[in-house]
Amino acid sequence: MNTRLKLSLYGLGLAAVFAASFGAGHLAGPGPAPAAHQAVAAHPGHDDPTPAVGEPAELPGGLQVAEDGYRLQPLTAGLSAQAAQPLRFTVTGLDGRPVTSYTPTHDKDLHLILVRRDLTGFQHLHPALGADGVWSIDVQAPAAGQYRMFADFQPVGRDRPLTLGADLPAAGDYQPQPLPAVQRTTTVDGYTVALGGDLVAGTSSTLTLTVSKDGAPVTDLQPYLAAYGHLVALRDGDLAYLHVHPDGTPGDGRTAAGPGIVFHAEVPSAGAYRLFLDFQHGDLVHTAAFTALAAPAPAAAPAPTSTPAPAAGHGGH
Questions:
Q1: Where in the chain is the domain with CATH 2.60.40.1940?
Q2: Which residues pair with 136 in a beta bridge?
Q3: How many helices, marked H, and strands, marked E, lie in the chain?
Q4: Whole-angstrom Cα distance, residue 233 to residue 276?
Q5: Pairing mode, if any, of strands 128-129 and 145-153?
Q6: Which part of the chain is CATH 2.60.40.1930?
Q7: Which of 105, 141, 153, 316 to pair with 244, CA 20 to 30 A apart?
C-alpha cells in the first residue's frame, strides 16, 4: 500500500471518529447544572416564573450581590456594635449608574433586612433614598459578628422585584449562638405567637401565625406596610432569603385583623429555617421569631405503564 493511500485512509478514520464523537455529544446533551442552581427560588408574592423543563432553576433570593444587571454596592465598610452609624449603599442598574426610580412594594421603595450569620439580631429597616441614588440609614448592630444585608426592591421598568445580598462585619468579640430549637410558640413583648402548618420543600405550604396577649386573641392588629404581617424566612447555613406576604389586604372586606395571619411559603429545600414575623399592635411593631424544619419534597409518583393493545383480529379472512 503506497504512502498516499495510507494517508487517505488515516484521514477518513479521523473524520469518522470525530463525527461519532460529535453525534454522541449531541445525544448526551450538556452536563447537569450544579446543585446550587437546581433549587427553585421561593419568593411568594414576587411572581417568579417557573423554569421550563431543561432550563436551570434560579437561585433563591439574597445569595447573590448582582442579578440581571443590577448590583448591590455597600458604601459602608462595616457596622458598629457600639453606637448607631450611617449605613450607605447603592443599587446600580443596567447602565452601571445608581438606580433612582423604584416601584413601591408594600408602601416602600426598598426593604432592608439585616441579620447576623448565626440568624440572630434581625432588623427590618427602611432607609432613605438620596437624589444621587445613595440609600442611607443609621444602624447599630446588636452584637459583634458577620452580618448579611438584603435589599428587597423593584426598579421602575422591571416586572418583578428581586433581592440582592452582601456581607458586612461588625468588629468585636464574635460569640456565635446555636440555632434555637424548633418550636410552635414564641413570645415577644408580652405577646404569644403560635405557628400552625408545616413547610414542605418545593411546594406551597400554608402557615398561619396566631397572635394573642394575656391569653386572649388579638383581633385588632394594625396595618403595617399595607398588611397585617410580614414574614421573612432565612435558610440556615447560606441564608437564602424569602420575603412572604400574607393573604388579603387590610380594609378589603374579607381579611380579619387577627388573630390569625395566613401566609403561603414555598421553600427551595428541606432543612432548618428561621422565620421572622413583623406585626403591629398598640402602635408598635413587634418581631416574633421561630425555627422551623422543612420536610423533603414528596416523592414523585411513578409514571403509569401502558399495556400494548392486542393486535386486531383477522376473523372472516
A1: 68-170
A2: 88, 128
A3: 1, 19
A4: 6
A5: unpaired
A6: 185-295
A7: 141
Q: Please name the amino acid found at residue 21.
A: S
Average pLDDT, the chain: 83
Size (the chain), residues: 317
Compute the 3-state secondary structure of the chain and give helix, strand, coil in percent, each to the nearest 5: 10, 40, 50
Among residues 203, 91, 95, the alpha carbon closest in space to that of 155 is found at: 91
Tell me the Ramachandran region of residue 167: left when phi exceeds 0, alpha when psi lies from -120 to 50, beta otherwise: beta
Q: Which tens digit of pLDDT belongs to each residue from 246-263?
A: 999 999 999 999 999 999
Place of cell 388573630: 259
DSSP structural state of residue 271: E
Positions of E strands within the chain: 66-67, 70-74, 85-92, 110-116, 123-125, 128-129, 134-139, 145-153, 162-170, 185-188, 191-196, 199-200, 205-213, 216-217, 230-235, 241-244, 260-265, 271-281, 284-295
Q: For residue 2, what is the enclosing H or E element?
A: none
How far apart CA 85 and CA 47 sit, in angstroms, is 35
Residue-wise pLDDT tens digits, 10-50: 443 434 333 333 333 332 333 333 333 223 233 333 433 33
| Superfamily, domain 185-295 | Macroglobulin (MG2) domain (2.60.40.1930)
Cell digits of residue 85:
452609624
Instruction: Please give the C-alpha separations between residue 233 and each of 43, 50, 122, 196, 254, in angstroms, as whole numbers.
Output: 10, 20, 11, 15, 26
Pairing of strands 284-295, 199-200: parallel
Q: Measured between alpha carbons, how far is 40 from 55 in angstroms, rounded to an integer?
A: 11
pLDDT tens for 212-254 read 999 999 999 999 999 999 999 999 999 999 878 799 999 999 9
Q: Higher-confidence residue: 171 or 16?
A: 171
Q: What is the DSSP string of 170-203?
A: E-S-----PPPPP-SEEEETTEEEEEES-EETTS
